[in-house]
């Protein structure tokens, strides 16, 4: 059974995923600014937080409607660095927000300012 996750939003916890992921996923809440253009052609800017990050992108939640394949820009508010991303997954809407997976257009393993564990890393049992 995995260890409980702290309610402290900045604390990171490791998740194992032996599936088809290119890199380890990490539960990490990072303040971000997401900008882009809606399908209707209107510019948008929305403050958000990551839910899960990896070396290739993140899972985020937005109230602005987007579509798979859409390009957006994600700025890490802590570092003020930004990257172009593509929406690769849309989850179900919950309330006024939709969870979505995004991937970096250009690889940047250091964007989240954390060291990802190696592929063969295993969570020690309690």
**Physical arrangement of strands within the biggest beta sheet:** 3-4-5-8-7-6
Query: What is the global morphology?
Result: globular
- The CA-CA distance between the termini, in Å, is 9 Å
Tell me the strand percentage band.
over 45%
Give structural notes:
By secondary structure, the protein is mostly beta strands. It has strands at residues 13-15, 25-27, 31-37, 43-54, 57-62, 71-76, 81-94, 97-104. The protein contains no helices and 8 strands. A hairpin with a 2-residue loop joins strand 7 and strand 8 (97-104). The protein starts with 12 loop residues before the first strand and ends in a 22-residue tail after the last strand.
Task: Give keywords.
126 residues, mainly beta, 47% strand, globular, disordered N terminus
Please specify the SSE layout and strand pairing.
Layout lengths: L12 E3 L9 E3 L3 E7 L5 E12 L2 E6 L8 E6 L4 E14 L2 E8 L22
Antiparallel strand pairs: 1-2, 2-4, 3-4, 3-6, 4-5, 5-8, 6-7, 7-8
Outline of the structure:
With 126 residues, this protein is mainly beta. Helix content is 0%, strand content 47%.
């Amino acid at each position: 059974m995995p260890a409980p996750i702290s309610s402290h939003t900045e604390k990171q916890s490791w998740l194992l995923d032996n599936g088809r992921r290119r890199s380890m996923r990490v539960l990490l809440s990072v303040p971000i600014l997401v900008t882009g253009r809606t399908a209707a052609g209107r510019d948008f800017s929305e403050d958000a937080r990551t839910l899960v990050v990896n070396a290739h992108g993140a899972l985020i939640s937005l109230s602005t409607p987007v579509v798979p394949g859409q390009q957006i820009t994600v700025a890490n508010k802590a570092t003020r660095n930004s990257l172009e991303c593509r929406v690769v997954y849309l989850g179900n809407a919950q309330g006024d927000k939709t969870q979505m997976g995004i991937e970096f257009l250009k690889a940047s393993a250091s964007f989240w300012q954390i060291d990802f564990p190696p592929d063969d890393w295993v969570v020690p049992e309690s």
